[in-house]
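Recall that a protein's primary structure is simply its ordered list of amino acids. Everything else, from secondary elements to tertiary packing, is in principle encoded there. The following example makes that idea concrete.
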Amino acid sequence: MPTDDSRRALNLHLADEAATLHLGAALAAAMQPGLKMYLSGELGAGKTTLVRGMLAALGFAGRVKSPSYSLVELYVVSGLNLYHFDFYRFKKAIEFRDAGFGDYFDDRNVCIVEWPKKAQGELPAADLNITLEIDGAGARVATLKPGTESGQRCIETLKRHL
């Protein structure tokens, strides 16, 4: 059940993996070209599960894996070029620039980034920041904070689909 913790942020309790997948599906309904979504949380918090829910809702039937070794996976689905990044293995933020990843962050592509802090200072501003935390009972808490008006519209659309 969604609860607003301020006028712009949204906190959600995710009881299990199915709830995380459902949130991903609801986020998919709000996706549009140019959206930049950054996912933060410790290992095992459900970042890749959330992306799996997004992709399934968009019609992708294949296997979704964390791109922690490849750094990026491209999914062409529902008329979107969705780039799923994972910067967990970055030693320095400049690796983002050295890899040429900045070229993907434009008005045509959807970019979802796991571990954005590893590229801090190199990444463009996020439209939507999502933090996933494990609570004491093994459930998850998702905090969604818009960084732009596009991110705020994404949250408003999300509320209608939850």
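The chain has a mean pLDDT of 92. Residues 149-161 form the longest helix (13 residues).
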